[in-house]
Fold this sequence. Notes:
The structure is a homodimer.
Chain A: E1 21-25, H1 31-40, E2 46-50, H2 62-78, E3 83-86, H3 89-102, E4 107-108, H4 111-121, E5 126-131, H5 133-138, H6 140-152, E6 159-164, H7 168-174, H8 180-195, E7 200-204, H9 212-218, E8 223-226, H10 227-241, E9 255-259, H11 266-274, E10 282-283
Parallel strand pairs in A: 1-2, 1-3, 2-9, 3-4, 5-6, 5-7, 7-8, 9-10
Amino acid sequence: MKNDRKTASNLSSSTIPSQAIGVFDSGVGGLTTVRKLVNMLPNERVIYFGDTARVPYGNKTAATVSAYTCECVEFLLEREVKVVIIACNTASALAMEAVQRISPVPVVGVITPAAETALRSSVTGRIGIIGTRATVQSGAYQAAMSSILQKQGLEREITVIAEACPLFVPFAEEGWHYHPATRLVAEEYLAPLKLANIDTLILGCTHYPMLTDVIQDVLPNVRLINSGEEAVGVADAILHEQNIHAQERSLHRIVDCYISDKSTAFMSVAERFLGFPLGMAQEVRLKKG
Amino acid sequence: MKNDRKTASNLSSSTIPSQAIGVFDSGVGGLTTVRKLVNMLPNERVIYFGDTARVPYGNKTAATVSAYTCECVEFLLEREVKVVIIACNTASALAMEAVQRISPVPVVGVITPAAETALRSSVTGRIGIIGTRATVQSGAYQAAMSSILQKQGLEREITVIAEACPLFVPFAEEGWHYHPATRLVAEEYLAPLKLANIDTLILGCTHYPMLTDVIQDVLPNVRLINSGEEAVGVADAILHEQNIHAQERSLHRIVDCYISDKSTAFMSVAERFLGFPLGMAQEVRLKKG
Protein backbone atom coordinates (compact mmCIF):
# COMPACT_ATOMS: atom_id res chain seq x y z
CA MET A 1 0.00 0.00 0.00
CA LYS A 2 1.32 3.41 -0.88
CA ASN A 3 1.85 5.95 1.86
CA ASP A 4 0.94 9.02 -0.15
CA ARG A 5 -2.76 8.29 -0.18
CA LYS A 6 -4.81 10.99 -1.83
CA THR A 7 -8.12 11.98 -0.38
CA ALA A 8 -11.28 11.68 -2.42
CA SER A 9 -11.65 15.44 -2.63
CA ASN A 10 -8.40 16.13 -4.48
CA LEU A 11 -8.70 13.06 -6.61
CA SER A 12 -10.15 14.27 -9.88
CA SER A 13 -6.99 16.23 -10.67
CA SER A 14 -4.88 13.07 -10.87
CA THR A 15 -7.30 10.27 -11.69
CA ILE A 16 -7.41 9.54 -15.41
CA PRO A 17 -10.22 8.01 -17.48
CA SER A 18 -8.23 4.93 -18.53
CA GLN A 19 -7.95 3.66 -14.95
CA ALA A 20 -10.09 0.62 -14.18
CA ILE A 21 -13.09 0.26 -11.90
CA GLY A 22 -12.39 -2.01 -8.92
CA VAL A 23 -15.09 -4.45 -7.89
CA PHE A 24 -14.85 -6.48 -4.69
CA ASP A 25 -16.93 -9.37 -3.47
CA SER A 26 -16.41 -12.10 -0.89
CA GLY A 27 -16.66 -14.64 -3.70
CA VAL A 28 -18.31 -15.10 -7.04
CA GLY A 29 -21.60 -13.21 -6.47
CA GLY A 30 -20.17 -9.81 -7.41
CA LEU A 31 -19.79 -11.02 -10.97
CA THR A 32 -23.52 -10.42 -11.45
CA THR A 33 -22.66 -6.78 -10.70
CA VAL A 34 -19.78 -6.88 -13.19
CA ARG A 35 -22.23 -8.27 -15.76
CA LYS A 36 -24.42 -5.18 -15.29
CA LEU A 37 -21.37 -2.90 -15.29
CA VAL A 38 -20.09 -4.26 -18.61
CA ASN A 39 -23.57 -3.83 -20.13
CA MET A 40 -24.08 -0.32 -18.77
CA LEU A 41 -20.52 1.02 -19.20
CA PRO A 42 -18.98 -0.99 -22.05
CA ASN A 43 -15.87 1.22 -22.33
CA GLU A 44 -14.75 0.60 -18.77
CA ARG A 45 -12.13 -1.92 -17.69
CA VAL A 46 -12.84 -3.86 -14.50
CA ILE A 47 -10.50 -5.34 -11.92
CA TYR A 48 -12.41 -7.86 -9.84
CA PHE A 49 -11.30 -9.37 -6.56
CA GLY A 50 -13.20 -12.32 -5.10
CA ASP A 51 -12.08 -13.51 -1.67
CA THR A 52 -12.80 -17.15 -2.49
CA ALA A 53 -10.39 -18.44 0.18
CA ARG A 54 -12.55 -16.91 2.92
CA VAL A 55 -16.04 -16.92 1.42
CA PRO A 56 -18.77 -16.80 2.73
CA TYR A 57 -18.72 -13.60 4.78
CA GLY A 58 -22.43 -13.95 5.64
CA ASN A 59 -21.80 -16.01 8.78
CA LYS A 60 -18.74 -14.11 10.06
CA THR A 61 -18.48 -11.39 12.70
CA ALA A 62 -18.35 -7.69 11.82
CA ALA A 63 -14.70 -7.37 12.90
CA THR A 64 -13.65 -10.27 10.66
CA VAL A 65 -15.65 -9.01 7.68
CA SER A 66 -14.13 -5.56 8.09
CA ALA A 67 -10.54 -6.81 8.26
CA TYR A 68 -10.97 -9.15 5.27
CA THR A 69 -12.70 -6.50 3.15
CA CYS A 70 -10.02 -3.87 3.79
CA GLU A 71 -7.26 -6.30 2.88
CA CYS A 72 -8.96 -7.11 -0.45
CA VAL A 73 -9.74 -3.47 -1.24
CA GLU A 74 -6.07 -2.61 -0.63
CA PHE A 75 -5.24 -5.07 -3.40
CA LEU A 76 -7.55 -3.15 -5.77
CA LEU A 77 -6.17 0.24 -4.64
CA GLU A 78 -2.62 -0.94 -5.36
CA ARG A 79 -3.80 -1.47 -8.95
CA GLU A 80 -4.89 2.20 -9.06
CA VAL A 81 -8.58 1.79 -9.66
CA LYS A 82 -10.54 5.04 -10.01
CA VAL A 83 -13.54 3.90 -7.98
CA VAL A 84 -14.26 0.86 -5.80
CA ILE A 85 -17.59 -0.96 -5.84
CA ILE A 86 -18.22 -3.21 -2.83
CA ALA A 87 -20.45 -5.70 -4.64
CA CYS A 88 -21.11 -7.69 -1.47
CA ASN A 89 -24.02 -6.87 0.79
CA THR A 90 -22.43 -8.30 3.92
CA ALA A 91 -19.28 -6.22 3.40
CA SER A 92 -21.35 -3.14 2.51
CA ALA A 93 -23.35 -3.62 5.70
CA LEU A 94 -20.38 -4.19 7.99
CA ALA A 95 -17.24 -2.69 6.45
CA MET A 96 -18.08 0.51 4.54
CA GLU A 97 -16.68 2.92 7.10
CA ALA A 98 -13.44 0.96 7.47
CA VAL A 99 -12.98 0.82 3.69
CA GLN A 100 -13.72 4.53 3.28
CA ARG A 101 -11.03 5.29 5.85
CA ILE A 102 -8.34 3.51 3.80
CA SER A 103 -9.45 4.51 0.29
CA PRO A 104 -8.29 7.66 -1.51
CA VAL A 105 -10.85 7.03 -4.27
CA PRO A 106 -14.65 6.95 -3.97
CA VAL A 107 -16.14 3.76 -2.55
CA VAL A 108 -19.66 2.68 -3.52
CA GLY A 109 -21.48 0.01 -1.55
CA VAL A 110 -24.64 -1.76 -2.65
CA ILE A 111 -26.88 -0.80 0.25
CA THR A 112 -27.49 2.96 0.00
CA PRO A 113 -28.02 2.93 -3.80
CA ALA A 114 -30.57 0.10 -3.56
CA ALA A 115 -32.29 1.74 -0.57
CA GLU A 116 -32.61 5.00 -2.53
CA THR A 117 -34.12 3.27 -5.56
CA ALA A 118 -36.52 1.27 -3.40
CA LEU A 119 -37.80 4.44 -1.72
CA ARG A 120 -38.23 6.10 -5.12
CA SER A 121 -39.88 3.06 -6.66
CA SER A 122 -42.32 2.06 -3.95
CA VAL A 123 -45.81 3.53 -4.21
CA THR A 124 -47.31 1.87 -1.14
CA GLY A 125 -44.20 2.24 1.07
CA ARG A 126 -44.25 -1.51 1.73
CA ILE A 127 -40.70 -2.64 0.91
CA GLY A 128 -39.18 -6.12 1.22
CA ILE A 129 -35.52 -7.00 1.67
CA ILE A 130 -33.98 -10.43 1.19
CA GLY A 131 -30.37 -11.30 1.94
CA THR A 132 -28.01 -13.44 3.98
CA ARG A 133 -28.66 -13.81 7.69
CA ALA A 134 -25.85 -11.33 8.45
CA THR A 135 -27.21 -8.67 6.08
CA VAL A 136 -30.73 -8.99 7.45
CA GLN A 137 -29.56 -8.99 11.07
CA SER A 138 -27.38 -5.93 10.47
CA GLY A 139 -30.47 -3.82 9.80
CA ALA A 140 -28.29 -1.86 7.35
CA TYR A 141 -30.99 -1.38 4.70
CA GLN A 142 -33.47 -0.10 7.26
CA ALA A 143 -30.84 2.29 8.64
CA ALA A 144 -29.99 3.50 5.13
CA MET A 145 -33.67 4.18 4.35
CA SER A 146 -34.17 6.10 7.60
CA SER A 147 -31.09 8.16 6.90
CA ILE A 148 -32.18 8.95 3.31
CA LEU A 149 -35.67 10.01 4.44
CA GLN A 150 -34.18 12.16 7.17
CA LYS A 151 -31.83 13.90 4.72
CA GLN A 152 -34.73 14.49 2.36
CA GLY A 153 -36.74 15.91 5.28
CA LEU A 154 -39.60 13.59 4.37
CA GLU A 155 -42.02 12.17 6.89
CA ARG A 156 -43.16 9.12 5.04
CA GLU A 157 -44.52 5.92 6.49
CA ILE A 158 -42.38 3.02 5.31
CA THR A 159 -42.94 -0.61 6.28
CA VAL A 160 -39.91 -2.84 5.80
CA ILE A 161 -40.09 -6.63 5.87
CA ALA A 162 -36.73 -8.40 5.82
CA GLU A 163 -36.20 -12.14 5.34
CA ALA A 164 -32.97 -14.13 5.35
CA CYS A 165 -32.80 -16.66 2.50
CA PRO A 166 -29.62 -18.67 3.23
CA LEU A 167 -30.37 -21.42 0.69
CA PHE A 168 -30.56 -19.01 -2.28
CA VAL A 169 -26.76 -18.68 -2.50
CA PRO A 170 -26.05 -22.42 -2.81
CA PHE A 171 -28.93 -22.82 -5.29
CA ALA A 172 -27.52 -20.00 -7.45
CA GLU A 173 -24.01 -21.46 -7.30
CA GLU A 174 -25.27 -24.96 -8.09
CA GLY A 175 -26.95 -23.49 -11.19
CA TRP A 176 -30.42 -24.67 -10.18
CA HIS A 177 -31.94 -21.35 -11.19
CA TYR A 178 -35.36 -22.77 -11.86
CA HIS A 179 -35.52 -26.24 -10.37
CA PRO A 180 -38.75 -27.43 -8.67
CA ALA A 181 -36.78 -27.50 -5.38
CA THR A 182 -35.70 -23.89 -5.93
CA ARG A 183 -39.32 -22.94 -6.46
CA LEU A 184 -40.38 -24.68 -3.21
CA VAL A 185 -37.59 -22.93 -1.29
CA ALA A 186 -38.51 -19.57 -2.83
CA GLU A 187 -42.20 -20.03 -1.97
CA GLU A 188 -41.33 -20.73 1.66
CA TYR A 189 -38.83 -17.88 2.08
CA LEU A 190 -40.97 -15.33 0.23
CA ALA A 191 -44.33 -16.23 1.83
CA PRO A 192 -44.07 -13.55 4.58
CA LEU A 193 -43.24 -10.92 1.93
CA LYS A 194 -46.20 -11.97 -0.19
CA LEU A 195 -48.45 -11.86 2.85
CA ALA A 196 -47.15 -8.39 3.73
CA ASN A 197 -48.20 -7.17 0.31
CA ILE A 198 -44.91 -5.47 -0.62
CA ASP A 199 -44.66 -3.64 -3.95
CA THR A 200 -40.85 -3.46 -4.06
CA LEU A 201 -38.21 -6.05 -3.16
CA ILE A 202 -34.49 -5.41 -2.75
CA LEU A 203 -32.35 -8.38 -3.81
CA GLY A 204 -29.90 -7.75 -0.99
CA CYS A 205 -27.29 -10.28 -2.09
CA THR A 206 -25.38 -10.22 -5.35
CA HIS A 207 -26.07 -13.93 -5.92
CA TYR A 208 -29.82 -13.39 -6.05
CA PRO A 209 -30.06 -11.86 -9.55
CA MET A 210 -29.36 -15.41 -10.80
CA LEU A 211 -32.74 -16.40 -9.28
CA THR A 212 -34.69 -13.40 -10.64
CA ASP A 213 -37.12 -15.56 -12.65
CA VAL A 214 -38.21 -17.77 -9.79
CA ILE A 215 -38.44 -14.83 -7.35
CA GLN A 216 -40.50 -12.82 -9.83
CA ASP A 217 -42.83 -15.76 -10.44
CA VAL A 218 -43.51 -16.13 -6.71
CA LEU A 219 -43.99 -12.33 -6.38
CA PRO A 220 -45.42 -11.41 -9.82
CA ASN A 221 -46.45 -7.82 -9.13
CA VAL A 222 -43.40 -6.75 -7.16
CA ARG A 223 -40.58 -4.60 -8.55
CA LEU A 224 -37.25 -6.35 -7.98
CA ILE A 225 -34.23 -4.16 -7.29
CA ASN A 226 -30.78 -5.56 -8.12
CA SER A 227 -28.50 -3.99 -5.51
CA GLY A 228 -25.39 -4.46 -7.68
CA GLU A 229 -27.00 -2.71 -10.65
CA GLU A 230 -27.91 0.24 -8.44
CA ALA A 231 -24.30 0.48 -7.21
CA VAL A 232 -23.10 0.59 -10.83
CA GLY A 233 -25.55 3.44 -11.42
CA VAL A 234 -24.00 5.45 -8.57
CA ALA A 235 -20.44 4.68 -9.75
CA ASP A 236 -21.49 5.88 -13.22
CA ALA A 237 -22.72 9.17 -11.74
CA ILE A 238 -19.40 9.65 -9.89
CA LEU A 239 -17.40 9.05 -13.08
CA HIS A 240 -19.63 11.51 -14.90
CA GLU A 241 -19.31 14.16 -12.19
CA GLN A 242 -15.52 13.82 -12.09
CA ASN A 243 -15.33 13.52 -15.87
CA ILE A 244 -13.33 10.30 -15.72
CA HIS A 245 -15.42 7.95 -17.85
CA ALA A 246 -13.27 5.83 -20.16
CA GLN A 247 -13.43 7.50 -23.56
CA GLU A 248 -13.04 4.46 -25.73
CA ARG A 249 -13.27 0.76 -25.46
CA SER A 250 -10.07 -0.73 -24.03
CA LEU A 251 -8.01 -3.10 -26.13
CA HIS A 252 -7.01 -4.86 -22.92
CA ARG A 253 -9.02 -7.63 -21.38
CA ILE A 254 -12.32 -6.15 -20.16
CA VAL A 255 -12.37 -8.00 -16.83
CA ASP A 256 -9.23 -8.89 -14.89
CA CYS A 257 -10.30 -11.40 -12.29
CA TYR A 258 -8.29 -12.13 -9.14
CA ILE A 259 -9.31 -14.64 -6.48
CA SER A 260 -7.72 -15.71 -3.21
CA ASP A 261 -8.24 -19.43 -3.82
CA LYS A 262 -8.90 -21.18 -7.08
CA SER A 263 -11.13 -24.20 -6.98
CA THR A 264 -12.02 -26.30 -10.00
CA ALA A 265 -15.65 -25.21 -9.73
CA PHE A 266 -14.87 -21.46 -9.79
CA MET A 267 -14.61 -20.83 -13.53
CA SER A 268 -17.87 -22.49 -14.52
CA VAL A 269 -19.86 -20.68 -11.82
CA ALA A 270 -18.05 -17.40 -12.55
CA GLU A 271 -18.81 -17.48 -16.27
CA ARG A 272 -22.45 -18.38 -15.63
CA PHE A 273 -22.77 -15.39 -13.26
CA LEU A 274 -20.88 -13.09 -15.64
CA GLY A 275 -22.77 -14.19 -18.73
CA PHE A 276 -19.68 -14.34 -20.94
CA PRO A 277 -16.30 -16.15 -20.96
CA LEU A 278 -13.84 -14.86 -18.40
CA GLY A 279 -10.80 -16.50 -19.97
CA MET A 280 -8.82 -16.78 -16.77
CA ALA A 281 -8.76 -15.94 -13.06
CA GLN A 282 -5.49 -15.32 -11.27
CA GLU A 283 -4.92 -16.65 -7.79
CA VAL A 284 -3.49 -14.21 -5.25
CA ARG A 285 -2.19 -15.21 -1.81
CA LEU A 286 -3.35 -12.74 0.81
CA LYS A 287 -1.00 -11.92 3.67
CA LYS A 288 -3.56 -12.87 6.27
CA GLY A 289 -4.96 -15.78 4.21
CA MET B 1 3.91 -25.91 19.65
CA LYS B 2 6.35 -27.94 21.69
CA ASN B 3 9.65 -28.91 20.18
CA ASP B 4 9.98 -32.24 21.94
CA ARG B 5 7.37 -33.98 19.87
CA LYS B 6 6.96 -37.62 20.72
CA THR B 7 6.41 -40.15 17.99
CA ALA B 8 3.27 -42.28 18.00
CA SER B 9 5.27 -45.43 18.76
CA ASN B 10 6.63 -44.29 22.12
CA LEU B 11 3.49 -42.51 23.07
CA SER B 12 1.65 -44.92 25.34
CA SER B 13 4.34 -44.57 28.00
CA SER B 14 3.51 -40.88 28.55
CA THR B 15 -0.07 -40.45 27.36
CA ILE B 16 -2.53 -40.75 30.21
CA PRO B 17 -6.20 -41.78 30.14
CA SER B 18 -7.53 -38.46 31.40
CA GLN B 19 -6.29 -36.56 28.32
CA ALA B 20 -9.03 -35.47 25.94
CA ILE B 21 -9.81 -36.61 22.41
CA GLY B 22 -9.26 -33.84 19.83
CA VAL B 23 -11.82 -33.49 17.06
CA PHE B 24 -11.27 -31.16 14.14
CA ASP B 25 -13.66 -30.03 11.42
CA SER B 26 -13.72 -27.13 9.01
CA GLY B 27 -16.91 -25.95 10.66
CA VAL B 28 -19.91 -27.34 12.47
CA GLY B 29 -20.33 -30.70 10.66
CA GLY B 30 -17.86 -32.56 12.89
CA LEU B 31 -20.26 -32.14 15.79
CA THR B 32 -22.30 -35.04 14.35
CA THR B 33 -19.12 -37.08 14.95
CA VAL B 34 -18.81 -35.70 18.49
CA ARG B 35 -22.45 -36.73 19.05
CA LYS B 36 -21.54 -40.34 18.16
CA LEU B 37 -18.34 -40.11 20.23
CA VAL B 38 -20.20 -38.99 23.35
CA ASN B 39 -22.71 -41.82 22.88
CA MET B 40 -20.10 -44.49 22.23
CA LEU B 41 -17.42 -43.34 24.72
CA PRO B 42 -19.30 -41.47 27.46
CA ASN B 43 -16.28 -41.22 29.76
CA GLU B 44 -14.12 -39.33 27.28
CA ARG B 45 -13.63 -35.57 27.24
CA VAL B 46 -13.61 -33.89 23.83
CA ILE B 47 -11.81 -30.77 22.62
CA TYR B 48 -13.44 -29.66 19.37
CA PHE B 49 -12.01 -27.14 16.94
CA GLY B 50 -14.20 -25.82 14.11
CA ASP B 51 -12.50 -23.50 11.61
CA THR B 52 -15.64 -21.40 11.16
CA ALA B 53 -13.66 -18.36 9.95
CA ARG B 54 -12.52 -20.28 6.87
CA VAL B 55 -15.33 -22.78 6.28
CA PRO B 56 -16.13 -24.32 3.79
CA TYR B 57 -13.02 -26.27 2.80
CA GLY B 58 -14.93 -28.16 0.06
CA ASN B 59 -14.21 -25.58 -2.63
CA LYS B 60 -10.59 -24.80 -1.69
CA THR B 61 -7.37 -26.13 -3.17
CA ALA B 62 -5.42 -29.01 -1.61
CA ALA B 63 -2.56 -26.72 -0.52
CA THR B 64 -4.94 -24.35 1.27
CA VAL B 65 -6.87 -27.17 2.96
CA SER B 66 -3.61 -28.74 4.11
CA ALA B 67 -2.23 -25.50 5.59
CA TYR B 68 -5.50 -24.63 7.35
CA THR B 69 -5.96 -28.15 8.76
CA CYS B 70 -2.42 -28.31 10.17
CA GLU B 71 -2.82 -24.95 11.88
CA CYS B 72 -6.05 -26.10 13.57
CA VAL B 73 -4.63 -29.49 14.57
CA GLU B 74 -1.65 -27.71 16.17
CA PHE B 75 -4.16 -25.92 18.38
CA LEU B 76 -5.53 -29.30 19.53
CA LEU B 77 -2.02 -30.74 20.02
CA GLU B 78 -1.07 -27.79 22.21
CA ARG B 79 -3.96 -28.88 24.45
CA GLU B 80 -2.34 -32.33 24.74
CA VAL B 81 -5.07 -34.46 23.23
CA LYS B 82 -4.33 -38.20 23.17
CA VAL B 83 -5.72 -38.81 19.69
CA VAL B 84 -6.92 -36.52 16.87
CA ILE B 85 -10.01 -37.25 14.79
CA ILE B 86 -10.19 -35.34 11.50
CA ALA B 87 -14.00 -35.24 11.32
CA CYS B 88 -13.96 -33.52 7.93
CA ASN B 89 -13.95 -35.48 4.72
CA THR B 90 -12.29 -32.76 2.66
CA ALA B 91 -9.43 -32.44 5.18
CA SER B 92 -9.17 -36.23 5.47
CA ALA B 93 -8.94 -36.48 1.68
CA LEU B 94 -6.39 -33.70 1.23
CA ALA B 95 -4.45 -33.16 4.46
CA MET B 96 -3.94 -36.49 6.27
CA GLU B 97 -0.27 -36.89 5.37
CA ALA B 98 0.56 -33.33 6.35
CA VAL B 99 -1.22 -33.72 9.70
CA GLN B 100 0.45 -37.05 10.41
CA ARG B 101 3.84 -35.40 9.85
CA ILE B 102 3.22 -32.81 12.59
CA SER B 103 1.36 -34.98 15.09
CA PRO B 104 3.05 -37.01 17.85
CA VAL B 105 -0.28 -38.71 18.67
CA PRO B 106 -2.37 -40.97 16.42
CA VAL B 107 -4.48 -39.19 13.81
CA VAL B 108 -7.69 -40.79 12.56
CA GLY B 109 -9.39 -39.54 9.41
CA VAL B 110 -12.90 -40.41 8.30
CA ILE B 111 -12.08 -41.95 4.93
CA THR B 112 -10.19 -45.20 5.61
CA PRO B 113 -12.51 -46.29 8.46
CA ALA B 114 -15.63 -45.70 6.33
CA ALA B 115 -14.05 -47.40 3.30
CA GLU B 116 -13.20 -50.47 5.43
CA THR B 117 -16.73 -50.73 6.80
CA ALA B 118 -18.24 -50.27 3.34
CA LEU B 119 -16.12 -53.11 1.94
CA ARG B 120 -17.11 -55.35 4.87
CA SER B 121 -20.77 -54.39 4.66
CA SER B 122 -21.37 -54.63 0.92
CA VAL B 123 -22.61 -57.97 -0.37
CA THR B 124 -22.89 -57.03 -4.05
CA GLY B 125 -19.73 -54.90 -4.17
CA ARG B 126 -21.77 -51.98 -5.53
CA ILE B 127 -20.85 -49.08 -3.24
CA GLY B 128 -21.99 -45.46 -3.41
CA ILE B 129 -20.19 -42.40 -2.05
CA ILE B 130 -21.71 -38.95 -1.56
CA GLY B 131 -19.77 -35.89 -0.47
CA THR B 132 -18.70 -32.39 -1.37
CA ARG B 133 -17.36 -31.75 -4.87
CA ALA B 134 -13.78 -31.68 -3.50
CA THR B 135 -14.14 -35.01 -1.69
CA VAL B 136 -15.66 -36.69 -4.74
CA GLN B 137 -13.08 -35.22 -7.12
CA SER B 138 -10.21 -36.26 -4.83
CA GLY B 139 -11.02 -39.94 -5.46
CA ALA B 140 -9.83 -40.55 -1.89
CA TYR B 141 -12.47 -43.15 -1.02
CA GLN B 142 -11.76 -45.15 -4.17
CA ALA B 143 -8.02 -45.00 -3.44
CA ALA B 144 -8.60 -46.10 0.17
CA MET B 145 -10.71 -49.09 -0.97
CA SER B 146 -8.10 -50.17 -3.52
CA SER B 147 -5.39 -49.92 -0.90
CA ILE B 148 -7.40 -51.95 1.64
CA LEU B 149 -8.16 -54.71 -0.88
CA GLN B 150 -4.52 -54.81 -1.91
CA LYS B 151 -3.36 -55.15 1.71
CA GLN B 152 -5.89 -57.92 2.26
CA GLY B 153 -4.63 -59.61 -0.91
CA LEU B 154 -8.22 -59.86 -2.13
CA GLU B 155 -9.19 -59.79 -5.78
CA ARG B 156 -12.75 -58.59 -5.47
CA GLU B 157 -14.77 -56.74 -8.04
CA ILE B 158 -15.96 -53.47 -6.57
CA THR B 159 -18.05 -50.90 -8.41
CA VAL B 160 -17.96 -47.43 -6.90
CA ILE B 161 -20.41 -44.67 -7.85
CA ALA B 162 -19.60 -41.24 -6.42
CA GLU B 163 -21.89 -38.21 -6.52
CA ALA B 164 -21.27 -34.67 -5.25
CA CYS B 165 -24.26 -33.26 -3.32
CA PRO B 166 -23.29 -29.61 -2.68
CA LEU B 167 -26.79 -28.56 -1.54
CA PHE B 168 -26.95 -31.11 1.29
CA VAL B 169 -24.65 -29.01 3.54
CA PRO B 170 -26.75 -25.82 3.40
CA PHE B 171 -29.97 -27.83 3.86
CA ALA B 172 -28.50 -29.54 6.96
CA GLU B 173 -27.32 -26.19 8.38
CA GLU B 174 -30.67 -24.54 7.63
CA GLY B 175 -32.34 -27.32 9.62
CA TRP B 176 -34.54 -28.40 6.74
CA HIS B 177 -33.86 -32.07 7.47
CA TYR B 178 -37.09 -33.29 5.93
CA HIS B 179 -38.57 -30.48 3.89
CA PRO B 180 -40.28 -31.26 0.54
CA ALA B 181 -37.48 -29.28 -1.16
CA THR B 182 -34.86 -31.43 0.62
CA ARG B 183 -36.65 -34.53 -0.64
CA LEU B 184 -36.63 -33.19 -4.24
CA VAL B 185 -32.93 -32.35 -4.01
CA ALA B 186 -32.16 -35.78 -2.53
CA GLU B 187 -34.12 -37.56 -5.26
CA GLU B 188 -32.17 -35.73 -7.94
CA TYR B 189 -28.71 -36.22 -6.40
CA LEU B 190 -29.30 -39.86 -5.46
CA ALA B 191 -30.99 -40.97 -8.72
CA PRO B 192 -27.73 -42.24 -10.31
CA LEU B 193 -26.96 -44.24 -7.12
CA LYS B 194 -30.44 -45.77 -7.14
CA LEU B 195 -30.07 -46.64 -10.82
CA ALA B 196 -26.68 -48.22 -10.13
CA ASN B 197 -28.33 -50.53 -7.60
CA ILE B 198 -25.86 -49.92 -4.77
CA ASP B 199 -26.31 -51.84 -1.49
CA THR B 200 -24.05 -49.58 0.63
CA LEU B 201 -23.68 -45.80 0.74
CA ILE B 202 -20.91 -43.87 2.47
CA LEU B 203 -22.11 -40.52 3.85
CA GLY B 204 -18.81 -38.87 2.94
CA CYS B 205 -19.46 -35.55 4.68
CA THR B 206 -20.04 -35.08 8.39
CA HIS B 207 -23.07 -32.86 7.71
CA TYR B 208 -24.96 -35.65 5.98
CA PRO B 209 -25.97 -37.66 9.07
CA MET B 210 -28.45 -34.82 9.72
CA LEU B 211 -30.23 -35.88 6.49
CA THR B 212 -30.18 -39.64 7.22
CA ASP B 213 -33.98 -39.97 7.15
CA VAL B 214 -34.50 -38.38 3.75
CA ILE B 215 -31.52 -40.23 2.24
CA GLN B 216 -32.74 -43.56 3.64
CA ASP B 217 -36.25 -42.91 2.30
CA VAL B 218 -34.91 -42.30 -1.21
CA LEU B 219 -32.64 -45.38 -0.95
CA PRO B 220 -34.69 -47.68 1.33
CA ASN B 221 -32.66 -50.90 0.97
CA VAL B 222 -29.21 -49.37 1.17
CA ARG B 223 -26.97 -49.51 4.25
CA LEU B 224 -25.84 -45.98 5.16
CA ILE B 225 -22.36 -45.59 6.62
CA ASN B 226 -21.69 -42.56 8.82
CA SER B 227 -18.01 -41.76 8.19
CA GLY B 228 -17.66 -39.90 11.51
CA GLU B 229 -19.05 -42.84 13.49
CA GLU B 230 -16.56 -45.18 11.80
CA ALA B 231 -13.69 -42.83 12.71
CA VAL B 232 -14.82 -42.91 16.36
CA GLY B 233 -14.75 -46.71 16.15
CA VAL B 234 -11.11 -46.64 15.02
CA ALA B 235 -10.16 -44.08 17.69
CA ASP B 236 -11.83 -46.35 20.27
CA ALA B 237 -9.70 -49.29 19.08
CA ILE B 238 -6.52 -47.20 19.39
CA LEU B 239 -7.40 -46.14 22.95
CA HIS B 240 -8.09 -49.78 23.80
CA GLU B 241 -4.83 -51.00 22.28
CA GLN B 242 -2.81 -48.36 24.12
CA ASN B 243 -4.86 -48.80 27.29
CA ILE B 244 -5.64 -45.09 27.53
CA HIS B 245 -9.43 -45.08 27.71
CA ALA B 246 -10.73 -42.60 30.29
CA GLN B 247 -11.52 -44.65 33.37
CA GLU B 248 -14.34 -42.59 34.74
CA ARG B 249 -16.67 -39.89 33.63
CA SER B 250 -15.02 -36.48 33.80
CA LEU B 251 -16.40 -33.85 36.14
CA HIS B 252 -15.26 -31.23 33.63
CA ARG B 253 -17.36 -30.08 30.74
CA ILE B 254 -17.69 -33.03 28.30
CA VAL B 255 -17.15 -30.98 25.13
CA ASP B 256 -14.88 -27.94 24.99
CA CYS B 257 -15.72 -26.19 21.76
CA TYR B 258 -13.36 -23.72 20.06
CA ILE B 259 -14.14 -21.93 16.80
CA SER B 260 -12.17 -19.45 14.70
CA ASP B 261 -15.13 -17.11 14.16
CA LYS B 262 -18.31 -16.87 16.17
CA SER B 263 -21.45 -15.99 14.28
CA THR B 264 -24.84 -15.59 15.84
CA ALA B 265 -26.11 -18.65 13.98
CA PHE B 266 -23.35 -20.97 15.23
CA MET B 267 -24.77 -22.06 18.57
CA SER B 268 -28.20 -23.08 17.35
CA VAL B 269 -26.80 -25.10 14.45
CA ALA B 270 -24.09 -26.59 16.68
CA GLU B 271 -26.52 -27.77 19.34
CA ARG B 272 -28.86 -29.25 16.72
CA PHE B 273 -25.92 -31.20 15.22
CA LEU B 274 -24.63 -32.25 18.64
CA GLY B 275 -28.03 -33.26 19.99
CA PHE B 276 -27.49 -31.64 23.40
CA PRO B 277 -26.69 -28.18 24.80
CA LEU B 278 -23.11 -27.07 24.23
CA GLY B 279 -23.20 -24.25 26.77
CA MET B 280 -20.57 -22.14 25.11
CA ALA B 281 -18.08 -21.96 22.25
CA GLN B 282 -14.85 -20.02 22.63
CA GLU B 283 -13.54 -17.93 19.77
CA VAL B 284 -9.84 -18.32 18.92
CA ARG B 285 -7.94 -16.05 16.53
CA LEU B 286 -5.70 -18.09 14.27
CA LYS B 287 -2.32 -16.63 13.31
CA LYS B 288 -3.05 -16.98 9.61
CA GLY B 289 -6.76 -16.14 10.05
